[in-house]
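Students often ask what a holo structure prediction actually looks like on paper. The answer is less mysterious than it sounds. You provide the chain, you provide the ligand, and the output is a string of discrete structure tokens encoding the 3D arrangement of the protein together with uridine-5'-diphosphate.
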Amino acid sequence: MEGTVLSVVVPMYNEEAVIPALVERLRPVLDNLGVTYEVVAVDDGSRDRTAHLLFEYGRTWPELRLVKLRRNSGHQAALTAGLQRAKGDWIVSIDADLQDPPETIAEMLRVAREQGLDVVYGVRSDRSTDTVFKRHTAGAYYRLMRRMVGGDVPAQAGDFRLLSRDVVEVLKKLPERAPVYRLLVPSLGFASAEVTYARERRAAGETKYPLRKMVALAWDSTANFSAAPLRIATWLGAFSFVACIALMIFGVVVWANGTVIPGWTSLFLAVLLLSAVQLICLGLLGEYVARIYRTVQDRPTFHIGFDSAAEAQRIEIPQ
Ligand code: UDP
Ligand code: MG
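The corresponding structure tokens follow.
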């Protein structure tokens, strides 16, 4: 759709349960904005009826566009696909489960236009609907990230945000293999503002972020923005060296007094401890090498199997 003002990117993984509620709530909000828009629903290789449902709703909602990834490639990869395909002057990314209230989109767009900004973050002022575990792990995550990436990263800002076309074009040119947009966007330094909202309960279905995916996101965030884990090896090495010198002096003093330090237990433990430390450091190094390797391979991180907009175009091309 040429001249699209707003694109709403919604990554979805096995979200069949939530789609009817999403359509019911999102559509009136967008219809009432008074701008041309498209919804880019990215089906992240769902195994349920997500794509089927989206396709069906698309029959009666022409602004709903389905982009289907062939495999489950992860939330951030699905966002990348959506950002790459979105045509709007403004691009909002929002979760499918209605935890981010769609009504806030109107406010984001108004703030960005009135103040001439490129980025508006949705900041969760209230997470009382999340589990205690989620609240604590998220709190620790944002504290660590703010320390690592810098204070520009808004705390409690997930992937509900509005970006201008300029920002999206910059993002598209970045060679990131595992982008973490909530850190990447603030690091670009565009003029931004925050709008706060209370996080709602998931409208239906289960979370698609098991612990495994949370840990993966935290590690991607760390490795993308910091080489500090690599320096752990240096610090541990320095610490072991000092400890070794101290032990040596102690050994000489004991020896001068006519005895020796007894036992092979201490020796054995020291060897075991240092081997463990060495293996951990090697593992960390390997993680970074693997990232370099993946970057050099330059394989796409997702494959688009279907795009309803592209298919429509294809039909229009005269044979
Ligand atoms: N999601 C995705 N691919 C994945 C995991 C999640 O596209 O591999 C989507 C999911 O459908 C939802 C959004 O990412 O729209 C956020 O996921 P969820 O709401 O389950 O995370 P939580 O709110 O529990 O952190
Ligand atoms: Mg959610």
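The beta strands are 6-12, 37-44, 64-69, 90-93, 119-126, 157-164, 192-198, 304-307.
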